[in-house]
User: What shape does this take?
Amino acid sequence: MQVTSPEGGTCQMTSSGEEDTSRDYGVYDLKFLPYHPIFAAATTLGKILICQLEEIGEPEQKDLQIKEVSSHQVIPENITICSVAWFPLQHASDGTRILAFTVEDGRVFLVRFRDDFKSFDFLNGQLPVHQHFDKTPVSNNAERAWCCAFSRPRPDSVMSGGDDSVLRRSTLNFPQDLTTLQEDSSLWSVVTDLALYREKRFPQGVTAILPFPFCTPECSSTIFLVGCYDSSVGLWSVYGKDVPEAEVNLGGGVYRLKFLQYEPGPPEQVACTFQVLASCMDAGTKILEVKRSISGHWFIDVVAEVKDHQDLCYAADVQPLPAPGDGEAPITCLEERICVSSSFKDCKLSVWKFNPLHVVRGGIILPLHSPMAE
Assistant: This one.
């Protein structure tokens, strides 16, 4: 498979020793290992693929090649893996290459990769850290777990959401110093399984979780965005109130959430602003602006949207900006960004630009994007 960018570069999918890149499975999710050109893909046949981006070609015309590093049958092939999430450490070693994944029967697991991703082992004694159920007086059915994420800034818990309309969180037991993690997987045993806001269940299934890489100044609590089938995005705190700090209706089920900038502001700032890319199923792609005022109140606004797809938008992403060098100005929320969004049944992929300077505050939004390629 080869994709050509608007600027003339290409990205080619290859497999070592093979020319045919067709596969007999679908991919539900794909996540890059933080700070590395390596990603994990969740498949419909119970496999997790580990792939790497490599540069090929001449220096003046470099292209990218996707190389499959390994494939691991972590779950029986009749079970779909719905989502994956990497343990968020900048310097990942064999001891900390941890991946959380969710499956269609509601279970959430942790695995650790070794030997340059050639082997793996289950953590928590091969048991799921928790499971999503639809518990009623007459049934106890497993429900799909659609998303998972590690807490930030300290990744000491795993959160997941599913069709049971509950966001679950399990606390992990490991050393205080994350750089000295030992090989003993018992250090990663589950301490508790907490169903957050269970008394106030979400109106519909939880489909997206986006933790912030900093805590609230007043209570040092992990904060995160939660997206649901009912089109809502809410800002929540682990130890906060049983209602969201802020909430907005996006007009379509919220399937993916991603920061436009990698780190949305330093934690010492009381007032901050950052942007989030949201995949909203039948409502297309939207860009949200999340603000915290000096007084500590949160606000969520829609500042841009793309509706050029004819079918469900299940995924969107943004091209990362290079880190500023010494003496260069820091990255802000004002840089033009290149994004890509998808459409399900019509098999459409669109590449477009978002310019924050074209957004009119307090009035009509001007042209929000410039299509580049489909």
Remarks:
- Residues 241 and 341 are 34 Å apart (CA to CA).
